[in-house]
Amino acid sequence: MDLQSLTYIVVGLTFALYIGIAIWARAGTTSEFYVAGGGVHPVANGMATAADWMSAASFISMAGLIAFFGYGGTVFLMGWTGGYVLLAMLLAPYLRKYGKFTVPEFIGDRFYSNTARVVAVVCLILASVTYVIGQMKGVGVAFSRFLEVDYDTGLYIGMALVFFYAVLGGMKGITYTQIAQYCVLIFAYTIPAIFISLNLTGNPIPQLGLGSTLIGTDVYLLDRLDQIVMEIGFNEYTTQARLSMTNTFFYTLSLMIGTAGLPHVIIRFFTVPKVSDARKSAGWALVFIAILYTTAPAVAAMARYNLTNTINQDGNYMLVSEKPDWFKTWEKTGLLAAEDKDGDGRIRYHADPEINEMVKVDRDIMVLANPEIAKLPNWVIALVAAGGLAAALSTAAGLLLAIASSISHDLLKGVFKPEISEKQELLYSRLAMAGAIAVAGYLGLNPPGFAAGTVAIAFGLAASSIFPALMMGIFSKKITKEGAIAGMIAGISVTMIYVFQHKGIMFIPGTSFLGDMGPNWFLGIEPNAFGSIGAMVNFAVAFAVSKQTQEPPAHIQELVEHIRVPQGAGSATDH
Amino acid sequence: MSSENNSDAKAAYWKENVRLILTLLAVWFVVSYGFGILLVDVLNNINLFGYKLGFWFAQQGSIYCFVILIFYYTKKMTALDRKYGVEEE
Fold first, then answer.
1. Does B30 touch chain A if contact means CB atoms closer than 8 Å?
2. How confident is the model at residue A135 (pLDDT cuts 50, 70, 90)?
């Protein structure tokens, strides 16, 4: 069967599965809509969290980033996993003990202020909307690359599917589809990696293959890779730095704190039955994430090796007439382009743009072309398509739920219309979900100027606003409402202003007053990495203001003591 | 148990929890920021099979350590919950 039909069948089957789950897992109460009824097994929740967490960027782009940044790509590997340690120890168990539906709800109650709750909703929406635009784009791109439908049509299909299971099932529908999506995406990611590792090193486990010798030689893969990329003028793979060490440090910290502060991840831990399950579940989530995250560096190095070696075999550049089939296939998509500028019949690949003839090597190709480079059967290629879509859809759905529940539960029920019944709230939550999907879809179709590098900025926003507020709310009894509100506003403002002054106000070109230039960066920290500084500002301002204001009332201090111990936790409720 | 004793026990429980968190976060910091970033060049002089050790910590080892840290914390806390009688019913 040809690849196109096979891809349609595999993707169609996975979609049918998601729809089947949606019909089975309809939500009948607000508790089911917001927290899946609170009865999700910790391992199952770990799996759902992994899918919730790993986006189109993790699945398609991350290995490509590492392949070209080498050691410099470490920022993403550590940054997008280390936050789970913070989540497991500093936030998840206590928020689960508190047992409410949303993150702003905790902030509003702990800081005895509806204003704090609304500020938290604004921060949540800023971070989540920025993040969801990237996912909607991922859905459109995945469709257009794999199924040859145009970007807009792909986006509509994706929206319709998410609409179906998220509006019908809320968190309950999303949880069970995410579990299915995790299985699809991890299978699609590891199968090609196993075969590539076998081909190159004879070791079927990519994590070990990366540290092994090349098949039939006694040369280590990484040593050889360092050598061949340096031969054509690139930096040594295993030591190549990306910007300064200070920047690497703060960027990693930003991503870690941001991970722990992203509401769509936090609310997943409200769905497990017990406090001890919340701790366990964070561990399982990281296990499932680590399977992909420790495979990615192997995929990155092996794909880079394969690509470099195909074009430059021991000093002989590839003949134009001898391009392999996968090379031609990906040239058609525009992700690869070669041009024999000097007319010697060979393609020269070199770091120096003056003599380089590989005019375009898109980073995403490192994952997308992998199955073909390893000469795997067509069904594996079809599976990669389904995996990419699963990654984008599962993250989009989780983000949309976080946005919708903050609107229906925090703004409507919590602040503006507290008198509505549970039934009415359920209806509003479905409407909010439908609205959020429509807005996200619109932004995906008409990406605003700032959508380009958005995902990293979403982490900065969450790191500088939500994480510090939650952590101080649990670990200090003395932080006052004024302190928390001032801290959140100061943290997120500092981060946004830093991003804007270097990248333009709302990213409009020409409005940046300092220019996006390294020398103007504070301590050499790039805008994407500034969330960690924003978080420090948040902590400092909150402590300073709390010292000057009247200490929290006694019942709030009791509330803090109450959430610190597991005893007496019910399942998540409205009251 | 009188309610005063109970609140003492809760305070002691919390103190032990915070101490455990600080210890584990120190390990978290050393394996990632320490070995993976600040000391990476020094560790790269040592080889672990085909890996430079610093590079291994940055792209593999730190992630394995994160997983172990969470499960260790979970195990310790289950014991702590029981020791102070604050576990869920």
1. no
2. confident
